[in-house]
Design goal:
Keywords: Chaperone, Cytoplasm, Protein transport, Translocation, Transport
Strand order of the largest sheet: 1-4-3-2
Radius of gyration: 20 Å
GO biological process, one term: protein transport
Family: Belongs to the SecB family.
Number of helices: 2
CATH topology: Bacterial Protein-export protein SecB
Order of helices and strands: EEEEHH
Subunit structure: Homotetramer, a dimer of dimers. One homotetramer interacts with 1 SecA dimer.
Largest sheet: 4 strands, antiparallel
CATH class: Alpha Beta
Protein name: Protein-export protein SecB
Helix content: 25-40%
Oligomer: single chain
């Protein structure tokens, strides 16, 4: 008895990284050089988001945006904004799995590139390295999905 694979290889799931690049970067030190004379007790505020752009049928651009503002007292020591982007080939996935890959897996791939860029830029700006802690994009995606489902559920 023989078993035939009825799945067309062209329909198989595919994932590939086509390119990883810096889409945008901004670094500001609005209170320099005076900030270097302050007692260094920094407070950081960080914002994180991602955008997805469909480029072609199976080609997507994912842009991970990280903005970190570091203050000493009321003065901004520095502000850094990085848009780390990647182009991903994603083929043959169901819509829910595609959404998960684009919103969790791809940002997870991009984050180490953004983290290194932030650390390097901040250091070159004359400050101590800003070492961002790992981020669990899977948990963030699950929270986002939960919030969406609560918005769509009538009370």
């Amino acid at each position: 008895m023989s078993v035939e694979n009825t799945q067309n290889p062209a329909d198989a799931e595919q994932f590939g990284i086509q390119n990883v690049y810096i889409k945008d970067i901004s670094f500001e030190t609005p209170n320099s050089p005076q900030i270097f004379m302050e007692e260094w007790k920094p407070q950081m505020d960080m914002e994180l988001s991602n955008n997805i752009n469909k480029l072609q049928e199976d080609l997507f651009e994912v842009v991970l945006k990280i903005t970190a503002t570091v203050k000493v007292g009321e003065k901004t020591a520095f502000l850094i904004e990085v848009h780390q982007a990647g182009i991903f080939l994603i083929k043959g996935l169901a819509q829910d799995k595609l959404s998960y890959i684009l919103n969790s897996y791809c940002p997870n791939i991009l984050f180490p590139f953004a983290r290194e860029l932030i650390t390097s830029t901040v250091t070159r700006g004359g400050f101590q390295p800003l070492l961002l802690a790992p981020i669990n994009f899977e948990t963030l995606y699950a929270q986002q999905q939960e919030e969406e489902s609560q918005k769509n559920t009538p009370n």
